[in-house]
Amino acid sequence: MPSGDTGNPSAPGWPVALTVFPVTGLGEVRPGDDLAGMLADRLFASHTEASPVPGGITDGDVLVVTQKVVSKAEGRLVAIDPNDADAKQALIEGESVRIIRRRGDLVITETRHGFVCANAGVDLSNVDVGTAALLPVDPDRSARRIREVFEHQHQVSVGVIISDTFGRTWRQGVTDVAIGIAGIAGVVDLRGTADATGRVLEATEVCIADELAGAAELVMGKTRGIPAAVVRGVDPQWFRGSSVAAEIIRPPGEDLFR
């Protein structure tokens, strides 16, 4: 599919409406599980009403999967005493390449992936007590694996986003962002196109992968136990080879705050 700029948002082809469907009924994911196969079983379901997505997943849909179930399937779980602050600190530091800030129990770090986030992504929520979930080793690769199963085994071409919950500097609250992508653009470059008034945009690059991850989280929620969602109605021009590492992580030389 085309990989160039998508043009003016008001032009034909830019999404007029998006629909987001929660993927329910997946069940508990455990280390070693075939996550892509489990998702396919739910989403194809012979394209009957048994699928939580009307008509089943189809070409041009975007599948958003939470980091937690990816980490579980890939065995990125470690035993830890939740009351042992020193053990948790050591685990966080082991998953970091750099400690940026500390305040009490909160540590802002840079991970091996280049993510700047709280506690190196080490998470004790939605896992068994005494267990911590770590980020996938290569979330882009995790996304590619899921996409390849859908494409090669089921002949359906979809974009895949691995999402995780991040805070934002200088803003309260958290939101889901893309930490791994496959087959869907990370950033859409609108520089050189015209806005609604005809003025040429000079600096606008839209991180549509993060926006799609945030939209999907609205139906998955933090407490509902829904680990995936399908976004339908995405601009076809956004489907292309992609990577969070290559497109979304800001190079240190362009970072004004490091």
List the domain count as a whole number.
2
- Write down the CATH topology of the largest domain: 60s Ribosomal Protein L30, Chain: A
Low-confidence stretches: 1-12
Strand content: 15-25%
Binned, the helix content reads: 10-25%
Order of helices and strands: EHEHEHEEEEHEEEEHEH
Mean pLDDT across all amino acids:
87
CATH architecture of the largest domain: 2-Layer Sandwich
The strands making up the biggest β-sheet line up spatially as 1-12-2-8-9
CATH class of the largest domain: Alpha Beta
Distance between the termini: 37 Å
Give me the Rg, rounded.
19 Å
The outline comes out as globular
In short:
With 258 residues, this protein is of the alpha+beta class.
Which features does this protein show?
6 helices; CofE-like fold; 2 domains; alpha+beta; 258 residues; 60s Ribosomal Protein L30, Chain: A
SSE inventory with pairings:
Layout: E1 19-22, H1 35-44, E2 62-66, H2 67-73, E3 77-79, H3 85-94, E4 96-103, E5 106-111, E6 116-118, E7 131-133, H4 139-154, E8 159-168, E9 171-182, E10 188-189, E11 205-206, H5 208-220, E12 228-232, H6 244-247
Parallel strand pairs: 2-8
Antiparallel strand pairs: 1-12, 2-12, 3-7, 4-5, 5-6, 8-9, 10-11
Helix pairs in contact: 1-4
